[in-house]
Amino acid sequence: SSDATGRGVLDALAFPCVLKPLALSASRGVIRVVTPAQADAAAARIEAIVRESEKDRSAAWGRTILAEEYLPGAEISVEAVLRNGTITPLAVFDKPDPMEGPYFEETLFVTPTRLPQEDAAEALRAVERTVEAIGLLEGPIHAELRLTPRGPVLLEIAARSIGGLCPRALRFADGRSLEEIVLLHALGEDVSALPRECAAAGVMLIPTPRAGYLAGVDGLEAAREIESIVEVTISVHVGDELVPLPEGNRYVGFIFSRADSPAEAEAALREAHAVLTLRIADEPR
């Protein structure tokens, strides 16, 4: 409990570890700590984040904080659908940027995965075991895994598809979107007959570099003209407040690429992001 993080509780934790609230999304309130003092400060910070979030909700969440072992290794995510508990993979995304903390801002998602086929298959088996263990049977799933020295480990799994505008990175047979695939699945269609397109694809979730208020974005046209870039969308408005993690709950925008290989899709995203300049003011205008 965040209001009872006595010294005995904190000293019992194995460090490094990750503290997180039991709700919220987009890595909000997720903090890596390496000492009892950091854990104490992080618990107070997480409680404040949850308390602020509750202002817009009809029912308060509990004040319980989850402590998890910190797992080293790269991350991947899996998009799939379930039919009677049987999994049909739709896409496996690599996350090329390391996510080591203290906060866990997601930036790049690139598919298809560059993992060896055997490693990708092992990750899918880990997802299947988790699905079976918790009793998920039907509909879309979004899973996040760490590729640790002891093998792939599930960080989380949700009965939904990937969030934000990220589904725009995926196209399937006949140009269908991920949303169409989910709807067709709900209508009883066999979506395994609608594979993802052959091209590599990626999306960058534009991070928030610092707190302030968005005054403008320079370089948009230059970013959109880069080869393999198919879309650049700024999803916050000029004048909106920008809040970095762990308090922040949204990204500045999204960059999408499509290329012949995952490496080219990733390189285009990085190049496009490099030419963008976010003008951030300290005070609202």
What features would you describe in this structure?
With 285 residues, the protein is an alpha+beta fold. It contains 6 helices and 14 strands. The protein has helices at 7-12, 36-53, 117-134, 178-186, 220-224, 262-275, and strands spanning 17-21, 31-33, 65-69, 74-83, 86-95, 108-111, 139-148, 151-158, 200-206, 212-218, 229-234, 241-242, 253-259, 277-281. The chain has a 4-stranded antiparallel β-sheet with strand order 5-4-7-8. Strands 6-9-13-11 form a 4-stranded antiparallel β-sheet. A hairpin with a 2-residue loop joins β4 (74-83) and β5. The mean pLDDT is 92.
Question: What is the fold's blueprint, element by element?
Answer:
Blueprint lengths: L6 H6 L4 E5 L9 E3 L2 H18 L11 E5 L4 E10 L2 E10 L12 E4 L5 H18 L4 E10 L2 E8 L19 H9 L13 E7 L5 E7 L1 H5 L4 E6 L6 E2 L10 E7 L2 H14 L1 E5 L4
Antiparallel strand pairs: 1-2, 1-3, 4-5, 4-7, 6-9, 7-8, 9-13, 10-12, 10-14, 11-13
